[in-house]
Design goal:
The structure is a single chain. Helices cover 43% and strands 17% of the residues. The protein is built from 16 helices and 14 strands. It is globular.
């Protein structure tokens, strides 16, 4: 029996990211737990396209930068090259990051590692570029096709965070007549210490001022087409404003959002009742979660929907589009409305505004909500590796 001593994780996209959100957030959190708790020797990799090689990332410097906010990000990347030949028998290569956005294609890399005897594991967050390419950049779709195709062929184990994604993968494998590698579902984590109260003095004055004006609905996440931010802005004009609700959008502006941001910035209530904040730190995001009347999640499609879990952890009710993955994640704790129906969203908000006892029932139910932690997620992944890859 082979005992795996080394776990290699390519975090090149994380190290280049300006904001640690979405997949980069999950990559960071899981990687930290592997470094702190795993029985494996974890080797972190950064691919340098100019030198056409991987360099090792100093593990302690990684933890200092991402957990303790100390040091300089670029300095955690050492000058120690990691040759592909060393990722061989007795090693696991784990694709945890959004690596299809990187420079080294998996259609080249994975067969090389496979021939050397390495085991291949991958965390697939969703296959939206396959199922909903209209919400993705064209170049990103092409790159993702290379990534997903290579892993269907070469991966020894797949991890997803939702049954909906596992089902979509099964359908894809069936369509291309390729056996699906063993697939396991491991939900993303949410740690309870993040739910500690954040006070006004701990956030920017502009954040606390916006949050204290009157009840507000909150959307958290990158502004991109599939998140459907325009629905919430439409609902504001169709009834939320009259009810006395403000809106707060928290997230960086992504691609193809010029029309929305123009409508947002030129709205007559922008800056007084409608707000958009970018580059918020965790404390400020958690503060907004705590203060929101509802977190709204009107996405057309999702891989998981981590803000739903984070809202629950902070005791904040969620209004979610009625799509399978959000039903899976939100369970009986969320309130659902018909996809793309601004009027029904307004109706739901009005009901709970006028019936405070019903609103408090949701808040009380959330006291019983218990997500898994990021350590739980990482531990489950390690358990899968031990069971499937020895």
């Amino acid at each position: 029996m082979v005992i795996f001593m080394k776990l290699y994780i390519d975090i090149s996209v994380l190290t280049l990211a300006t904001y640690v959100t979405g997949i980069q957030r999950a990559t960071c959190e899981v990687t930290v737990r592997f470094l702190e708790n795993s029985n494996f020797e974890t080797v972190l990799l950064h691919y340098n396209a100019a030198d056409n090689c991987y360099y090792r990332i100093n593990n302690l410097s990684f933890l200092n930068y991402y957990i303790r906010q100390k040091g300089v990000k670029e300095k955690m990347i050492t000058k120690t090259p990691v040759k592909l030949e060393e990722i061989a028998q007795g090693c696991i290569f784990f694709d945890l990051d959004a690596v299809w956005m990187g420079r080294i294609k998996r259609s080249y890399l994975l067969p090389v590692l496979k021939r050397q005897g390495a085991k291949i594991a991958v965390h697939i967050y969703d296959i939206i570029p396959v199922t909903h390419p209209q919400y993705c950049l064209q170049r990103g779709v092409y790159c993702f096709m290379d990534y997903i195709g290579a892993h269907l062929i070469y991966a020894d184990v797949i991890i997803t965070n939702a049954g909906a994604t596992a089902g979509a993968l099964d359908n894809l494998a069936d369509a291309v007549k390729t056996p699906l590698p063993p697939c396991h579902i491991v939900p993303l984590g949410a740690d309870f210490n993040h739910a500690e109260t954040v006070w006004e003095k701990e956030v920017g004055k502009n954040i606390s001022t916006a949050a204290m004006k009157r009840p507000f609905l909150l959307m958290v996440g990158t502004l991109e087409p599939r998140k459907n931010h325009k629905l919430l802005l439409s609902a504001y004009d169709r009834g939320l404003k009259k009810m006395g609700c403000n809106l707060i959008f928290a997230g960086a502006v992504g691609w193809n959002m010029e029309q929305f941001t123009s409508a947002l910035n030129n709205h007559p209530d922008y800056g007084t009742h409608i707000f958009h904040f970018e580059g918020l730190n965790d404390q400020e995001i958690f503060y907004l979660y705590q203060k929101a009347q509802f977190v709204v999640f009107p996405s057309y499609t999702e891989g998981f929907g981590l803000p739903v879990v984070e809202a629950f952890v902070h005791g904040t009710p969620v209004l979610a589009a009625d799509i399978p993955v959000l039903r899976e994640v939100g369970k009986e704790y969320a309130v659902y409305f018909k996809q793309d129906d601004a009027d029904e969203l307004c109706t739901k908000v009005m009901f709970y505004t006028e019936h405070n006892a019903e609103y408090e029932k949701i808040k009380q139910k959330l006291l019983a909500y218990r997500p898994i932690s990021w350590k739980d997620s990482a531990d489950k992944m390690e358990e899968i590796f031990m069971e499937e890859l020895q």
